[in-house]
């Protein structure tokens, strides 16, 4: 029998898994999932996992048949590889759920060319990752093997999936590029979108610099068409460039909310929009300066400024002008074309569209830049809103070459598993190993088809370490999501991630005698970044959280002062270090909850292609933890915002914060609903967006709505970040 011969009607694991959804005497029969897991391994994996007489013969076969690269293997003595495998086998790894094993073998395990057999187990994939990212360093290979096999660290899907493979895609997750206000840049941007979508991963594109519809065009009798036609071109590009049909190309367009095309930009996503302007698959993101919140709060009119006029006056592209600081001057300047709308009407339109589609994402650009320790300006985010890095615009000439090569962004991601990292024998050493793995990705990423991304990566050495499993950890330890204890824990956990990634980055800078470009102009170099840590005490406040961190080193103000001195002396290798992605499906393999948000269901139902529904019980679900697993749809979103805000103060980039709403709001969930309709309204979303802004949240991802007819509006498309 081979994988092709498996008859879904004859195997038992699907039916066993589905029985989880059938209560027995009022209890969830979790044992059925264990039975489904055992059946899957016995009926699917064991008979179809290709075996070899020896480890040496296995590697020879995989190399000779172009399944694995020869180079990374030959950097190690084979006796060490055998030692590494012995270490991994002694860890006695076992999947905990049917979903975890199914996801791994369906999406990650290497298969034969004819798709008949699996060529690797979870241990084999871990070994490939450890050896590949260690790059010949035996000590690091063992450390990475330790972190990944104990699931303290999970590389992002492109890295975990492709590490060591001979025929593979890129190791990075997603990309960010910008276009400026000329046809050459637009053409180059569309080409870049095609190339990056072909490589894999979601692509974010800033359109804020483009002149609005109706604006004059130099030396041509006519007017500009605005951003919507460019959005249509981009959507078609992503649809066409889809890795030979293996995945849907995914992109997001960002536009400043003070752009004159903002209403048309939002309208293009409406279901009833004319097909000539409607974008179905392109995601939308709004760049929102503080000034908009002020104007909406005061119920004033807001002026929209045409980018070509602003650039003519300020000498820089529209994205690089501080709208909040310059707003009054922009309004008063007669040379800048402008029009006005009511801020609250636009705010209502945003909420309406979020109800209908989940879009737009919201990037609070002033908050992002105020907290940015790097010299330069953040102007946009990515498809999952967690990447926030400075960029520089390019100048493209008539031959599509560069008169001035700017910098754009590629994302190198990985996640800590909170439950397992908290059980690490050495929290700091674990994080240091993770930083080394991510550093390999940034060092070896060379996206030459988009030179601005290649340059940005080479100068910044950026990485993005995040986290998953917060709700699982809280429930396991009988802490309610969003409680004071939960916020206390989140605060300390992310403070530790910040501290240890800084330590690791500083150590790499010492070893290599180099820093990221522009370090000397950063708040790290002048020391001001560290002020909040040297003037405040970050220690657990509650007895429960103190117990959770017992035995784990927590830096004092003195420790932070010492780190500040070390960084000022020798620098940091990485321009950016932390980012929290949504990491959905990859969390199943880790048997934990996704990212930092609450679960959706205690027993999650997933529709898998070809086979139907699979049920996934929440991690550590039992009669004791049941009360601590409240659905995100029944959770006050202010608790989610407070949780992310506790983490955000320590995260130099952003976080994918999804808002979960019901069409019919549960009674008593939001105090402002008392005496009003229980239906979700545009006012509800406006209140939550303003609350997030006031709490220092840099970005908001989807708004997901559970409707009265049991459907969900707003679904994630960025598989590179999500899985």
From TrEMBL:
GO terms for cellular component: ribonucleoside-diphosphate reductase complex. InterPro entries: NrdE_NrdA_C, RNR_1b_NrdE, RNR_lg_C, RNR_lsu_N, RNR_N, RNR_R1-su_N, Rrm1. Transmembrane segments: none annotated. GO terms for molecular function: ATP binding; ribonucleoside-diphosphate reductase activity, thioredoxin disulfide as acceptor. One of its GO terms (biological process) is deoxyribonucleotide biosynthetic process. Signal peptide: none annotated. Keywords: Allosteric enzyme, ATP-binding, Deoxyribonucleotide synthesis, Disulfide bond, Nucleotide-binding, Oxidoreductase. Provides the precursors necessary for DNA synthesis. Catalyzes the biosynthesis of deoxyribonucleotides from the corresponding ribonucleotides. This is Ribonucleoside-diphosphate reductase.
């Amino acid at each position: 029998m081979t994988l092709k011969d498996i008859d879904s009607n004859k195997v038992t694991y699907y039916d066993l898994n589905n029985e989880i959804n059938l209560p027995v005497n009022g209890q969830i029969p979790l044992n059925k999932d264990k039975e489904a897991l055992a059946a899957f391994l016995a009926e699917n994996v064991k008979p179809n996992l290709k075996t070899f007489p020896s480890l040496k013969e296995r590697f020879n076969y995989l190399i000779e048949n172009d399944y694995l690269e020869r180079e990374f293997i030959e950097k190690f003595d084979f006796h060490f590889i055998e030692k590494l495998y012995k270490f991994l086998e002694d860890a006695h790894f076992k999947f905990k759920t049917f979903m975890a094993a199914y996801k791994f073998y369906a999406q990650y395990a290497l298969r034969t060319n004819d798709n008949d057999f699996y060529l690797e187990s979870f241990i084999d994939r871990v070994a490939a990752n450890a050896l590949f990212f260690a790059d010949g360093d035996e000590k690091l290979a063992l450390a990475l093997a330790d972190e990944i096999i104990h699931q303290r660290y999970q590389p992002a899907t492109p890295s975990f999936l492709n590490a060591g493979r001979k025929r593979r895609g890129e190791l990075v997750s997603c990309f960010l590029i910008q276009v400026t206000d000329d046809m050459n840049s637009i053409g180059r941007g569309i080409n870049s979108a095609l190339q990056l979508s072909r490589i894999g991963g979601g692509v974010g594109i800033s359109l804020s610099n483009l002149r609005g519809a109706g604006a004059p065009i130099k030396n041509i009798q006519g007017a500009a068409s605005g951003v919507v036609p460019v959005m249509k071109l981009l959507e078609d590009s992503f649809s066409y460039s889809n890795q030979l049909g293996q995945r849907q190309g995914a992109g997001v367009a960002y536009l400043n909310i003070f752009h004159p095309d903002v209403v048309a930009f939002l309208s293009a996503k409406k279901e009833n929009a004319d097909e000539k302007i409607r974008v179905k698959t392109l995601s939308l993101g709004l760049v929102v300066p503080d000034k908009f919140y002020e104007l909406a709060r005061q119920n004033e009119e807001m002026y929209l400024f045409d980018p070509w006029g602003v650039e003519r006056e300020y000498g820089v592209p529209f994205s690089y002008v501080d709208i909040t600081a310059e707003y009054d001057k922009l309004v008063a300047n007669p040379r800048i074309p402008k029009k006005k709308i009511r801020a609250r009407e636009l705010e209502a339109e945003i909420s309406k569209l979020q109800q209908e589609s989940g879009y737009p994402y919201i990037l609070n650009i002033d908050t992002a830049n105020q907290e940015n320790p790097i010299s330069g300006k953040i102007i946009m985010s990515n498809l999952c809103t967690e990447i926030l890095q400075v960029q520089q615009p390019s100048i493209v000439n008539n031959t599509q070459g560069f008169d001035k090569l700017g910098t754009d962004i590629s994302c190198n991601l990985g996640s800590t598993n909170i439950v397992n990292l908290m059980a690490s024998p050495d929290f700091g050493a674990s994080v240091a190993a993770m930083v080394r793995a991510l550093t390999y990705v940034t060092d070896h990423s060379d996206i030459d088809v988009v030179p601005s991304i290649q340059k940005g990566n080479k100068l910044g050495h950026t990485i993005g370490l995040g986290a998953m499993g917060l709700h699982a950890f809280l429930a396991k330890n009988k802490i309610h999501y969003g409680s004071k204890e939960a916020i206390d824990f989140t605060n300390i956990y992310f403070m530790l991630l910040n501290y240890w990634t800084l330590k690791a980055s500083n150590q790499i800078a010492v070893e290599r005698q180099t820093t990221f470009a522009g370090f000397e102009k950063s708040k790290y170099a002048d020391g001001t970044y560290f002020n909040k840590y040297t003037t405040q005490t970050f220690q657990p406040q509650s007895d429960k959280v103190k117990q959770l961190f017992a035995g784990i080193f927590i830096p004092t103000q003195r420790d932070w002062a010492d780190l500040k001195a070390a960084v000022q002396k020798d620098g940091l290798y990485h321009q950016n270090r932390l980012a929290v992605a949504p990491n959905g499906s990859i969390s199943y393999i880790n048997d934990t909850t996704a990212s930092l948000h609450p679960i959706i269901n205690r027993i999650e139902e997933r529709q898998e292609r070809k086979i139907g529904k699979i049920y996934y019980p929440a991690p550590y679900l039992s009669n004791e933890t049941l009360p601590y697993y409240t659905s995100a749809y029944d959770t006050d979103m202010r608790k989610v915002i407070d949780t992310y805000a506790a983490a955000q103060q320590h995260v130099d980039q952003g976080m994918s914060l999804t808002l979960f709403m019901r069409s019919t709001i549960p009674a008593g969930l939001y105090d402002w609903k008392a005496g009003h309709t229980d239906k979700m309204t545009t006012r509800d979303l406006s209140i939550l967006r303003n609350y997030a802004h006031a709490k220092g949240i840099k970005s908001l991802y989807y708004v997901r709505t559970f409707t009265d007819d049991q459907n969900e509006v707003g679904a994630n498309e960025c598989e590179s970040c999500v899985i």
